[in-house]
Write a structure and sequence with these properties.
- The structure is a single chain.
- This protein is of the alpha/beta class.
- It has a single domain, classed as Decaprenyl diphosphate synthase-like (Undecaprenyl pyrophosphate synthetase), CATH 3.40.1180.10.
- It is built from eight helices and six strands.
- Helix 2 runs parallel beside helix 3 and helix 3 packs parallel to helix 4.
- The two termini are 23 Å apart.
- 31% of the residues are buried.
- Bound molecules: 3-methylbut-3-enyl trihydrogen diphosphate (2 copies) and magnesium ion.
Amino acid sequence: MGSASAIPAHVAIIMDGNGRWARRRMMPRSYGHKKGVEAVRRAIAFFARSGVSRLTLFAFSSENWQRPRDEVSSLMSLFVSSLQKNTDELDEKGIRIRFIGDRSAFPEALRAQIEHSEAQTRGNERMTLNIAANYGGRWDILQAARALAADCRNGRLQPDAIDETAFESRLCMPDSGPVDLFIRTGGERRISNFLLWQSAYAELYFCDVLWPDFDEAAMQQALDDYAGRQRRFGKTGEQLAEAATLPED
Ligand code: IPE
Ligand code: IPE
Ligand code: MG
């Protein structure tokens, strides 16, 4: 048993493998994305039940615009219809939905639906679901840097006062805190410009399961793996063992 608190507070997932899942079945990639939505529903329910309080899902990267036009437009339609279908249920389950990323590039119908889903679920506290769409980790850091620069220019902030707290408060989801468990399905071992700042000390978990097949057993395996890790944050294992035996104040 490691020293990580057994359940991660913040889980982030790169949901990869929809296209390959579909191609293996001689189906179009868009069919894989559709099946991927079922896996999203399963993951939200599972992690909420497990006591995870923030779940951040990578749905569309700033680089994904480079995909064939018909795949991009079928993804946009799928985002709208999935939000339409699922917002009420998420709301009833106490889940707050928030989008992170540059939404200005999205079609109007999607922007409106995002705003509606966010507004409807704003007061919910059981779990925050952050959906990263047209998101890039470098973009997030750059927009925070721009906000800091603007505040310095207008005199609200002194450059010397820029610390991690000031920087973090200008990132996309300042209230979701650092990522504890970072999962990528689909077999690739890379971060693909996801939450760069927020994942600085995340436990990384890569698995070969393609996203539409990421079921409860596979999710539980990720949690079990996490629970067995020792998060040292620069300290030694001995220091952590010693701290664990001291009585709490
Ligand atoms: C992830 O699955 C979903 C999105 C990027 C929208 P992919 O579509 O990347 O699936 P593969 O990697 O091609 O199998
Ligand atoms: C990353 O998946 C983005 C999402 C899952 C939305 P990709 O499949 O686009 O990643 P790369 O480009 O292959 O690393
Ligand atoms: Mg992929």
